[in-house]
Protein 1
Amino acid sequence: MVKDLLKGKNGIIFGALNDKSIAWKVAERAHEQRAGFVLSNTPVSIRMGTIDQLADKTGSTVIAADATSTDDLNNLFEQTMEIFGGKIDFILHSIGMSPNVRKGIPYTDINYPNFSKTLDISALSFHKIMQTSYHMDALKEWGSIVALSYVAAQKTLSGYNDMGDAKALLESIGRSFGYVYGRDKKVRVNTVSQSPTPTTAGSGVKGIDTLLDFSERMSPLGNATAEEAADFIVLLFSDLTRKVTMQNLYHDGGFSSMGMSNRAIEQYSKSFD
Ligand SMILES: NC(=O)c1ccc[n+]([C@@H]2O[C@H](COP(=O)([O-])OP(=O)(O)OC[C@H]3O[C@@H](n4cnc5c(N)ncnc54)[C@H](O)[C@@H]3O)[C@@H](O)[C@H]2O)c1
């Protein structure tokens, strides 16, 4: 196992709700690799979840922020830079929520105020975070920003609803801001397209158990776990990936390149036995 990959680096990790969260696993791995960080989430998620336990375990500070509020984000970046005595090195955007998915509203009957909320929380928040850090010049040169995405940005998966649209926008924002941030401040911006993962947000997707099983059978290496996602993201925060930017990187056991797999067909034919 590599050691001290993030020694001397500090950042902000958004989206750790409980010990199932992908952001929680990233925080644990980043801590193991000697990074310092602030943990952020909404006031209600801080109350309902267990982020304080993670903060105790990793010696980090929790600062509440709704990632759709630029005032909250300004305050968060100001406080974070005060804690670390200057600019930081990495940001994780691990934020997603769709009121339409949550309420089981089908894509054909979508409620538009809900749709706007989905886009604001799950995609525009990525732009808002980067706009705030860019104008405050909060990231050091060769800093790294990562957001979590899903293959529903490219391919239609029934049940994923308006989150597919949100992920397409998220990935596009990653490329657009990645260009400017790279050109002006030598900061990397990437999205990681992760396998379906049994977390609180993941469990909200209709038919998640079937999706997990199907995806496991389709992927030659099987589904990637949250812990494996954390390993990959820590690598993207490190100095070993300094010229990787504006990419959507699939971390999905090969799923996104598959058309059909024997294991999926076998299961399909069994259902006729
Ligand atoms: N679980 C999966 O199957 C899967 C697969 C691919 C990508 N992802 C993505 O990974 C990311 C993390 O999700 P997760 O699966 O760890 O679930 P999770 O439920 O643990 O995390 C989602 C987080 O978003 C936070 N959040 C919601 N609204 C917010 C707001 N307004 N401001 C700040 N934070 C807010 C929640 O409080 C929560 O901590 C999401 O972007 C999700 O779409 C998940």
Note: Residues 112-135 form the longest helix (24 residues).
Protein 2
Amino acid sequence: MRILLINPWICDVAAYDFWLKPLGILYVGAILERWGVEVELLDFMDRHSPFYVSFLENSGLRIRQGRYGSGKFYHEELFPPPPQLQGIPRRFKRYGWPRKIAEERVRKIIRRFDAVFITSCMTYWYWGIVETVKLIKEICNLPIFLGGIYVNLVEWHARSLGKEHGFEVVKGVGVAPVIEAMRKLTGYEYSGDFDWFEDLHPAYHLYNHSLPYGVLMTSVGCPMRCTYCITPRLWGGLKSKKAKKVIYEVDMLIDMGAENIVFFDDAFLLNPDVDEVLDLLAKYAGKVRFLLPNGVHARLLTMELACKLKRANFVLIYLGYESSGSLQYKTGGKVTDEDLKKAVHNLKKAGYGPEEIKVYIMVNMPGQRKEDVEKAIEFCENLDVDYSLNEYTPIPGTLDWVGLVKEGKLDPDVDPLLLNNSVLPYWWEHGMDVETIEKLKRIKNRRLR
Ligand code: SF4
């Protein structure tokens, strides 16, 4: 049995490679290999693939590279945009490999396979799946299975898309959806008698080329219940990896050339082994940089942990703050102003400069006033740390989502394309309008000049 794994394009009005790697499908690869299935990977979002790089060079295109291996994606505009987005004054694009390159790669290898497994992420990126499936269907008629976050959050939509475009949907996380897809494909019940997260490692070797950065997770899930976050519902609690397994994966990425290793846990500091992980990572200082771009819990960032992060050469630490004012409590109480102040103090004492600490602020949360965002900005500026303004969107299945549907402020059957955080303010009448959001963003831009 041979399976082709595909990480599909992203279709959006904006996208940037802030260390995006399809960890889910890399674990699927590891699970399949454990069963003796032969797998290959086509990652349409891989900026370091030799095919993509030589296409850019031959076309004389220079795409801007960012810090620590991040960078811009190549894109092609999709015109006209999907009908749902007509009237929204933003250009809709397909990010990642040029279509020509993706088509060439699929045509060249597809005959070797019995089926295609595709992963999914944000619900509002589903157009990338449509584009990917259309490309495969133009070339062959292999069975296609789709799993991932989009399927888990809006299963009804994924199933109807599957009917329309001819693919099967498998729901769930971990090994269960892979067992289901293989059962449908072969009629055989594969065994899930292993811990996919602890016993397996993401199958990075499927890239077949060096990578300037790699992404890992020392845990999945979170025991907290913030109203805007889907993580607790998706994973049903915290599942963590032992320190020595984390170190094995770090070595694996270093062997592949990674100079930047990014931890994308939702609750990195809640891993019971976090102290040991950081102590062990210290041996790589000078050899590799570590990054925490997913907003760690400020309340847990003690002086001791801040010193360990510094010793291990963590060069970028994002803290989750989201909003000032009463919303901090109303949304779950994960952080207060005092928590953030202490965390920043500890990081600075440990030797971090203002440009190495970044605070996430959300804009357009339900019930959030413009003044809440302005105060949050002012608070960060007084702490002398950088901040990032992120536009909010209600994620299907979160407590916010349930509340908004109940209050009649959101149609539960809304097309996920309209939930794109850059698109939401153009049509949703229960949040901030585009102009207010732009004004808030300009505060930062003005101060940067
Ligand atoms: S926002 Fe962070 S703390 Fe809150 S539930 Fe999600 S992962 Fe946990």
Note: The mean pLDDT is 96.
Protein 3
Amino acid sequence: MQPQSPRHPIRKRRVAAFASVTMLTLAVSTSAGAGHLTASVTGSGAGPARLSFSPALTPCMISGSPAVQMSEGVPTRGAYAPSTGTVHALTLMVDFSDAPGEGDALDRFHEFFPQTQEWFRTASYGRLDYRPAVPIRDWLRMPRPFEEYGVERGAPFEPGYRQLVQDIAKAAGPKVDFRDYDLVNVLMTPNAGPSALDTVLSVTFAANTGAPVVNGVTLANVSFIYSRQDDGSGSYESTGYRVLPHENGHVFGLPDLYTQEGGVAVGHWDIMSEDWGANNDLLGWHKWKLGWLDADQVSCAAKPGSTEYTLTPLAHAGGPKLVFVPLDRHSGYALELRTLGGNDEAVCQPGILIYKVDAEVDTGQGPITVHDARPNSDGCTRSPNVQTELSDAPFAPGQTFKDPKARIRIDVTSADLKGNYRVRVTRQ
Ligand SMILES: [Zn+2]
């Protein structure tokens, strides 16, 4: 099957306090999205996320039409990498004759590891056992100069990336059996291409069933990481790795949450929205989608009347994490409790985060929108590179969210001494 043409790339812009920084990471899903519940995956891959669900959750299993390339719908459809259990990530450090790797290739590897595997362990409550593998510990030299691949921002898979994947497979071939891996990370030498301060080239080709086949395995899920996204703030050492969990989020089927306006839709509440600045977690919706929540940790508020729910902090394992209030078969409101802890390093206003999820909206177009409990407040954070306005978006006890058109009301009723919150969902 021929892959679809990747969509026009999205450019994300953001002005930091100290420097003007333009960043771009993009997802190009070339999955045909034919509507199969599970994809047939070759090699060691076990298919995309194993969603936990029960009959009571059926009204909350929203889905998008096949035309949506990368949808927030559940379960995830397409030939994405598995996001639970032990996941083997072939990681290659690649250089070129016109951009030779500087220093030890393993230093490049250690810009991202072990931080990335720890990030996934924490975010998944231990359900994603991420194993980076470096069977080639030196720079893997490509047969053509970097210039020849025509890599630029938003470059499609054809023809440059196809050539690059073929050349990587050929160069690595004698030492790598691609059947051993679920996804591929290509860590480019940082001097290939422009500085990330000018153009962020990092890109993932996910569920790309038309990709080259090596050792009988389709290389459908490959993340390419380019120049360091170092903004000069001195924070790169601790936060620079986070482009990789973002890009790997795509190989697990997660769409981009930033839009052409930057992080204004979701702020710093998900690494698919902002992958710079202080560490941040994934939304509870994404954790369910990735198979990291059990069915009994998710509640579906589909019935008329008033129902109360308890939510425990998303940062801690165990307990109820997500309430979803479906609007129709494609969208609804998600509720979760966000606090300082786990991967969330910059939460300045704990509380119930309320956001709309729309499975009909594609990656980069704003599939998720956070509702701000304190609009036009300018937020509460002083953490650099964190979207400010939505930093105080969570609802506190006593606050209410209303959607009069849908006749939905959400009251945050109380918080207890253990730090758990109670919410009441009323549907008329
Ligand atoms: Zn992205």
Note: Residues 256 and 364 are 5 Å apart (CA to CA).
